[in-house]
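Example record for the data management plan.
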Amino acid sequence: MNVNDLSININLSMRTMIGIFIALLAMVCATFLYVVWQWHSDWGLAHDKPEPISTITTPDTMNKIISSISGEHLFGQSLNKLGDMPITNLQLSVTGIVKVETEQSHSVSKAYISIAGQPSKIYQLGDHLPYGVRVYEITSDAVILENDGHLEKLLLPREHLKFKPKTKGRL
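Corresponding structural encoding:
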């Protein structure tokens, strides 16, 4: 086998080669312009100063805010009544919970939740699940969901262990 037999003979006219060169040059220029434009918009997002927060100056606005305080939960909602919370009817199931408390009492707990029988995914506080629900709290035996402004409980299923009775003669 000869090396000359493996070569490909391409006979292009000078006009065709100039056309290919111009097309490649145009693609390189378009890519360069796009990169510069994208960099400029990213730089603008990173270096823009935030708008100043407006202050409340009118007495009417102040009175509206003060009157609305009575209907709010100033110190949050208590979770010590977990037994009174309804169990969710959504097609969700908890397959595992990793409950971790840090020294600063920030919870970094994770919950493994399966949606409609699919493989489990990992969720943490504040994550949004399908059906418009959000993970509100993760306890050692349940995940508390916020569903349309109401709290619902998604329990971790527990399997009861069954022990076989001891048989004589075996250790």
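Summary line stored alongside the record: DSSP finds three helices and seven strands in the chain.
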